[in-house]
Request: fold
Amino acid sequence: MPKFLRIGIHKSNVSGYTSKAWWIRRAGSTVSLKWGPVEVDGAGDGRKVYWTVPPREKSIRCRTVPLAKDYVKNAVARRGSHSYEPLAEKIAIRLRPANRGTELKQVSATILFVDIVRSTEKAARLGDSRWAKVMAYYYAAVRKEMKTLRGKEVVTTGDGLLATFKAPAAAVGCATAIREAVRTLGLDIRVGLHAGDYKVGGPDVSGLAFHIGARVAAKARAGEVLVSSTVKDLMSQSDVRFKDRGTHQLKGVPKRWRLYRVDH
Reply:
């Protein structure tokens, strides 16, 4: 089953270009999806494509094999107008490593992942021109709230953003403010938050904490702000209310994690 890379306006897909990938595979009556930001090294037949953060994942269990085949066919057809191209090679996960020769420093922070729910469908409905305007307003709203609460932008992910905050309360406040701000644009977002240590070397960051944050975000429903138990514990003296969402196995992450929804 082919994999697809979002090319956007950069049809030549030059080295260093950050884009978005969408991947689909069928096994019997089950369809698996992956999607997220990627980075491209090289060009032409020699290029390599990497997930820059762990991709979001979803499995759809269809009742029969023919229904699963129809689901895949329709899913590919829906994305045919979005400048995706087939990829033959495997997409590996690679958080950008710290620069060689730069001293690594360990940092503790709260990590925020935010992205738009059903962005592909919305882009298809609006068309490229209108969608570009919506995205410009979206990022302006996100960055306004981040600036107010002193968040640090790490990377954008096509329709989302990764940021860090010194205080978990600021990260939670930013997440809920962004959620309300973008609703005026007709958008729903999902947000995941985790607090932990990671390595910094110049402009680059790496660490398991980013993987955990991405997996927490992947569990969020439309309009939800989910936090790991680590974030909740750090906010034990806060007035923020949390609702238990149970324990979850985060793909590729050790042990099961208890997640909580921000309930205000």
In short: The mean pLDDT is 80. The longest helix spans residues 128-148.
